[in-house]
Each structure stands twice: as C-alpha cells, then as structure tokens.
Design brief:
The protein has 129 residues and is mainly alpha-helical. It has 4 helices and 2 strands. The radius of gyration is 41 Å and the shape is rod-shaped.
C-alpha cells in the first residue's frame, strides 16, 4: 500500500485506495475549515476576536478602560454629593463675629431685606442714646 498526492489540492498525501484527502472532502461537503471559523471583532470589524468573546484584544482593553473610568466618575460624584451636604450645615455666628459695617455691605451686595436694614438703624439709634 503506497501513498500519492491528493489530485485536487496536490498538497496532502493520501493512500492509493482513496480519491481525495480529508481536507478536500470537507471542502466538497461544504463544511468550513478550521481557519474559516475565526471570528472577527464585532466592534472594529478588523481584528480577530479573542476566544470566548466577540471583541478583539484592543477593543476589550478599551471597554475595560471605559468601565474603570465610569466607576471612578461614580465615586467622584458620590464624594461631591457628600461635600454638598457639608454646604448645607449652618454655623451659628455671634453678632460680634462680623462688624456692623460689613453686615451692611453684605446686605447691599446680596440685596438684603429692607426690614433688616431698618432693624440695624433702629439698633444704632438706641445705642447712640
């Protein structure tokens, strides 16, 4: 029993009693070759996909990087929300902490109530007497 080259592909050797090699038989049946089963990345459409994934290595790295950035942004937003809570805290101030002249200027800049200005004037008049 001898061997001869496959008459179709002329690459593979077959036994004398066979007509075609296994590779050519699969091709004639319409079965895909092992090389044809390589999946292409669904994201970029250029590189072969990593086994068990639909994405190539480059796209997988980018997806993971984006996920990490989103996690960091969420953590940052949570810390900013905590800081907003600190802004809502009121610190009691004594009247002596802010001089009256500055209080009047602050009221003017912020468009303070006229009632408050009247009260300050009344207090000044009482102190002068």
């Amino acid at each position: 029993m001898g061997f001869k080259k496959c008459p179709k592909c002329e690459l593979n050797y077959i036994r004398d009693d066979e007509q075609f090699c296994n590779v050519c038989k699969r091709g004639m049946k319409g079965e895909p070759d092992a090389d044809d089963s390589i999946a292409i990345c669904t994201e970029c459409g250029e590189n072969p996909a990593v086994r068990g994934s639909e994405l190539c290595a480059v796209c997988l790295r980018e997806v993971r990087r984006q996920e990490n950035l989103e996690k960091r942004a969420d953590e940052l937003n949570a810390s900013v929300d905590d800081m907003d809570d600190l802004d809502e805290l009121e610190v009691p101030l004594d009247d002596d902490d802010i001089p009256e002249m500055e209080l009047e200027e602050i009221d003017k800049e912020l468009g303070g109530d006229d009632d408050m200005a009247d009260e300050l004037e009344d207090e000044e008049e009482v102190e002068e007497d």
